[in-house]
Amino acid sequence: xxxxxxxxxxxxxxxxxxxxxxxxxxxxxxxxxxxxxxxxxxxxxxxxxxxxxxxxxxxxxxxxxxxxxxxxxxxxxxxxxxxxxxxxxxxxxxxxxxxxxxxxxxxxxxxxxxxxxxxxxxxxxxxxxxxxxxxxxxxxxxxxxxxxxxxxxxxxxxxxxxxxxxxxxxxxxxxxxxxxxxxxxxxxxxxxxxxxxxxxxxxxxxxxxxxxxxxxxxxxxxxxxxxxxxxxxxxxxxxxxxxxxxxxxxxxxxxxxxxxxxxxxxxxxxxxxxxxxxxxxxxxxxxxxxxxxxxxxxxxxxxxxxxxxxxxxxxxxxxxxxxxxxxxxxxxxxxxxxxxxxxxxxx
Length: 347
What we know:
alpha/beta; Rossmann fold; 2 domains; six-stranded parallel beta sheet; 15 helices; 46% helix; aldehyde dehydrogenase (NAD+) activity; NAD(P)-dependent_oxidoreduct; NmrA-like
C-alpha cells in the first residue's frame, strides 16, 4: 500500500540529497509519484519539477498554510525545519482519514555535547533520551523543538522519529544546494584570509557523509512505508554517524591541501585569537560559534545498524576527500574559482 511522502527543505543540502536518494531507487517502496517536495521559491520549484515529483511552494513559517498542505496532500513528513504546523496537519489528516501518520524530525547532535548544554556525558540512542532532554532547563530552541515533536505527536496520535544530525560533509546530490556548512565555511575563510585557523580546543564531533545520511533517511522511510516495526515516539531517537572528525587533524590536512593549490600562504594552522574572530571569519553566530567548533558529543549509535544501515564512509576516506571539498567550494563561487585557476597557472 503506497503512502505519500512530504520532504521539507527539498531544495536544501540534506533535504535535496534525501529526495535524490529516494528517486535513485525506482524499484523501492517509495515511488517518485508519491513524493511531495516543499521549496520556498518559484525558481526552486521550477528546478525540482523536472524530477517527476509533486513540488509545493510553501513558506513553512505560515502554520495555517502548512497544515492545509499536509492535510490536502495526505502526506507523511520527512522534516528538517518547522514542526508545529506539520504535526498539527498530520494529526488532522489522521483524524479525518483514520490512516496512520508519521513524522521524521531532524535535530542537531551538537546539543548532546557539554558545549551544547548536555550534562550527562555519553549516551546511547537506546537510552531514555527524551526523558534526559526534558530534565534540562528549557530555552534552547533546537532542544525545545525535539521535545515539542515528541509531546505534540503523541498527543495527536502521530508516530514520530528524531534524528540528531551530526556534522555532515560531502557534495550534496540534490538539484539546488550542494554544500554543507562547517567545512565549506572553514575553506572559504582560509582562502579569504590566506591562512587556516583552528580553535584553542580540539574537537571530535560525530560526522557522516551526506550520501550515507540520505541513505538512512531512505531506509527508515521504507521501513515505515512497508509497515515494519520500528522504534518510535519516546524511543524514536536515532544517532546516525559513521566516525568522529578530529578537528585539528582535519584543519592540518586542509592547510596542506590549500597550500598545494596556492590558496594559503603556509601549510600550517593558526589558532583563533578569540571566539569573536572565529565568528567573524566563519560567518557563524557569536553565541554558538564555540559550541559549533569545539563540540565532542559522546553519542553511541545502536539502532541505525540494527535497521540494516550500511554506511560507506569512514574518517580516513573523509580526510582523503578534503581536496574535493575544496574543489566543490571553488565550483560554487565562479570568482573564487577563477582566482584559484590563476594562482595555479601562475598567470
